[in-house]
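Good morning C.,

I know you're traveling, so I'll keep this short. The sequence:
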Amino acid sequence: MTKADSKGKDVERGNHPPSVKVRRKPGRVPVSCAECRRLKLRCDRKVPCETCVKRGCSAICPEGSLTTGNRSNRLAFADAEELQKKVERLRSRVNVLEDALRKLHADVSDDPHPLLVDQDETQTPGDSPQAASTPGRPRSVLSSIPMPNESEALPQTDPNDEEFIGAFGTLTLGLKGEARFYGSTARPEFLVQAPRYDAWNEVGTKPEDFPRLSRVVYEEASKGFDKPCEILECKQEIFQMLPSLSEACRLCDLYLEAGDYMWYALPRSQLYDEILGVIYRSASDLAVSPDPGFSSLNALSVLYMVFCLGTLVDKEHPPCSLQAKEYYMLGRLALRCASPMFDITLWTIQSLIYQSSFLQFYAESGSAPHFVSHYAWLQLGFAAKLGTSIGLHVKSSKWRLDEEASQRRAAVFWQLVVQDGWISFTFGRPPCINLAWVDCELPKDPHEKTDAEGHLEWGFNAWVCQYTRLLHNVMSTALAAKVPTYAKLLELDRKIRDFPVPWSLRGKCGQTEPVTPSTKTSVQRYFLMICKEITLLNLHRPYFAQALNESPQALLKHRYSPSVLAIYRSAWRLIEALRDTHGRAPFVVERYGFGWSTAMSAGIIMCLLVTRAPTSSFAPASLHELDRLCEIFERCAGPQSPSAASNVDVVRKLQSQAHEASSKMEQDDRSSPALSELDRLGGKTHLLSEGAPRPSPPPDLVRPFCGLTPRSDAPTPPDA
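The tokens, ready to paste straight into the viewer:
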């Protein structure tokens, strides 16, 4: 057969090159597909035909055909060139996506992303449980935590050999059966004062403390929201107590300025145009219409709470001044005049949110802050119930609301989520809002920007909202009734560490910066760092306590050594950040109570390392950090910082007992009752039953933080 004949046969069979145009004989139109003709099979003349579908080549029907390969009888598509081009396009797309992922991940971690690590062609990333610890692959266990020796492998944990960690908090029972629960993540000052049942002699609870208010206004403001106030004189007096317009504008500006880092502030235009202007016009119209309307009273309640919060951050007033408390009472009474039990508006919920914020700040000025904070927690739960009762948790577009109304509803709801999540976390209690029921979108971020490298950065408030969603996941997983496996806890640790932080808001603990950041940036960095580090500290604290109890002489060889390293690093950062930020923004730090609370939690960790594990490499550095913490508490304790003043004695006792244990090196007495109290303050399950009320904590209350220790040297600790 000649080459021409062979070429003619191939063309007749349909195996012609793509560039050759097939000439068909006139009058002959093929009725079968090309593949059926090649195989001499019956074709049903459908596209694709049944034969091609059965053979798995429906993509080439009716014009394409398969050809027999030269090796192993493999089949290749006739249009292989087109498929090759498609593969090249996909490969190019994958390379672009990998480059983008590499740049994005470099902003949040120094380690390569697991998806960017070369994998063995014969094994996928999830084939082996040891894949994360195999040489050449990134470790999935706290790879960002500095190890004392990188050649040492992390301890392997068997999920079937997990030990029960009883860290469910403290339950207190009073003489009359009254009870209160503090979970494992409760603030340390709450746990110190948990056994107390004496009433809190709050500053500013007598009518004589408010000479500008009439007695009836004081009494009505002190009542609950279940019954509305219908006294016309009270409504009129609320409007008459408004400050001058110039003073009102000054307080509004202070409130808006602090809204960049302290709370979610209303937009300036909304505050001035829809609230301030309307209220002051209504106040001037009282002579014509003496009974203010429902909407005016709701807006007035919000305005008074704006004045209240502005006064809290006013340098002309002492912390938690009586003037702020007076504004709070007037705002509360204005809300009672338009009772939220019957008519609910966005202003209603906004006012309740701000009232809860004020109570949390005001709680720091007393000797027993957990009482007022507990009431703030209750009031915020009430606000959350009201919010869900008007459907704030549901996406507003489902009701076809306009964009402005949707954004306002979303802003109020996510304030509820943030406040509810964090106050529940500080009490160790489950949040009132379950995100499984929520599809409300986050409000638009007015501070969102793109950096010089093209990366999208959230604003401060948007970041807090996003991180609170992760906090809910941590609380529902690690702090729930069912204790997760240690591997699951390490997975949560990785999620927290990998959570992106805008480049401009990343803290630089212990490092000098070429350009000194502004006060606003310094405070925002500090608050964002607190959010992540206090979450990590509470996440690892039960396992850290377990390692201290079981292996104080060899913490780094314990199976929970990752938790020891993680909690030491978080405690160091909390102390260092407090000192650094106080040097840049002393006024804000001194008035912000949560920062001092987290620093005290860090001090407890440092004291535990010194007193319970003096032979570890952490002990000398921990003692040094505890001295530095005590120094800043003593320096700031005073009228300007009620939080530091109320907790300085606890920190002093921590320091004293740490130095005593370090100098004496006594053997640990396992029968000491202090160890049981230590477990309670570490979050373990405990029941306190009072035989008689105690007016003040015992002088040795902080002894359980540390206990007694065995003898040891003090090697150099690992770098933080």
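Safe travels,
E.
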